[in-house]
Specification:
The complex is a heterodimer of chains A (239) and B (341).
Chain A: H1 2-28, E1 33-41, E2 44-45, E3 53-55, E4 61-78, E5 81-85, E6 90-94, E7 101-104, E8 114-119, H2 123-126, E9 142-143, E10 148-158, E11 167-173, E12 183-188, E13 195-200, H3 201-206, E14 215-216, H4 221-231, E15 234-236
Parallel strand pairs in A: 1-13, 11-14
Antiparallel strand pairs in A: 1-2, 1-7, 3-4, 4-5, 4-6, 4-8, 4-10, 8-12, 9-10, 10-11, 13-15
Chain B: H1 2-15, H2 46-57, H3 69-72, H4 125-129, H5 138-147, H6 150-159, H7 166-178, H8 186-191, H9 199-211, E1 226-227, H10 243-246, E2 255-256, H11 278-287, H12 307-317, H13 323-327, H14 335-338
Antiparallel strand pairs in B: 1-2
Helix pairs in contact in B: 2-6, 2-7, 9-12
Classes of the chains: A alpha+beta (239), B mainly alpha (341).
Chain lengths: 239, 341
Amino acid sequence: MTKFLKTKIRIGVFLLFLISIYSNTKAQKSNDISVSFYPVFNNSIINFNQSAFYKTEINDSIQFNLLRFYISGIQLLNDHKVVWEEESSFHLIDANENLLSFLIHPSINISYTQIKFNLGIDSITNVSGAMGGELDPTKGMYWTWQNGYINFKLEGKCNQCPTRNNEFEFHIGGYQFPYNSIQTISLMVEPLKNIDIDIDLKKLFESIDLLNTNNIVSPSKEAILFSNKIASVFSNREK
Amino acid sequence: MTKLFLLLIGICFTISGFAIFIGNIFYVPENWPQPVYDFSKNPLTYEKVELGRALFYDPLLSKGNSISCNSCHSQFTAFAHVDHALSHGIDNLIGTRNAPALMNLAWQKSFMWDGAINHLDMQPLAPIANEKEMASNIDSVVKKLQRTKLYPTLFLKAFGDSIITGEHTLKAISQFMLTLISNNSKYDSVMRKQATFTQQEKKGYKLFKINCSGCHLEPLFTNQQFENNGLYVDATLNDIGRMKITLAPNDSLKFKVPSLRNIEFSYPYMHDGRFKKLSDVLNHYTSGIYQSKTLSKKLETPILLSSNDKVDIISFLLTLTDRNFLFKTDYSFPKELLLKQ
């Protein structure tokens, strides 16, 4: 009887051991790496809810009220070859809600030197009907009268804008040729380290003439130009 | 043995294509093309269709709970907006376009007169958000639905989740609209050899095939292209059609070729509802064509029809009326659901 119990315990312990090995390897199969975005102006992080003023190049005051955009299709690369790809990779970044970072879980045993992602939503997803989660149309990132996701939204005020309340409004999107505004961004990264990315709005507004360009709300040539400019102000955050 | 049986069941399911042909709520009529709608992403079920039907008829979807989809798309006009050239909405603001009939939407590639909508699921976002129509937005609609007694239960039954999302709301409305199949007109019976045309209808059909089929292609009576059919531009609306979407000058004044099924009841006609009668439409094609750069090649040589020919074509067009569709109770106001509230 006791012998039987002993074997039972032994088997039990052995099973526990197996389980622990299994869960260990499972936990170690991937890393948690955070990807974070820092909207900055003159090296200070922009507060989107307190309507703070910042000074533009020509010493005009500028204010930001809203920043929201999609990051999708995240890949890690080594020597220009894709070594890891996130599955159903869609992340909504919302500065007003302080949703500025997310985790990715690349496999443990890969080395990589580069991250690549899209700013915006690809055209297949754009024509695939109603989606949930980050892509749910209740998120306010979907156009109504002319379909398609809005890839990037930035709103604020600047006295230079000859508009109502001096507001500017950029809702950038469009998925159909020739007005496909999705952008691909790639940055060098250090393996296993968290990834911190600056979005330098000062640089962005240096390349925009707010007097003439202050309202883009549909797919167009202007939207494409603008999306190019946004993509160029994403950079690694100085450590 | 049971394994073999299970395997067989599996194979049947795969072959039946994600089980879209459930009961008679959806079917592909004989000799029709395959549907465009991707049912694998939104498989039809009775519960979802019923939920969609309730949403379609519920004014809760608008600001002030005053109008529903049905206000502009009523069944007895094949889900078009009867008697209003330009659709009326919230506070009687006039919209800029005529509400089209809703039918056979599973076969349709794009929606709206200019193709602005790329997928049936996304269609309701437009009227819900337009300040001239339902003047609400999907976010507040979802919140409103969540607060009702009725809807969390219906969503639970349909989607297994009583938390209402935009995705589920839109998919349910699509499900109802997908069931709106019209294929039981006299024309269809004749094609199935269950009926025959009168002499006049036969003549009309022949003339139709010569002059109209190039765009109004059978069996859906549309080639789903964007064409300029020679309407002069209404200066008060200045509607450039497809060009608004593509920004391409050679799309100027092109509109989606509409189906002509149930045309008897979906008056007034054209994107701005400018014609009240079918005879006005035929007079347009014979003597009203407005010449412009983007006029369809198919209309460059004038259509010649005697007044008898016109009457014949109209008698054929009337064979496209599907009374079964116009009065089918599955499509009508869901009393059981909406009056209980």
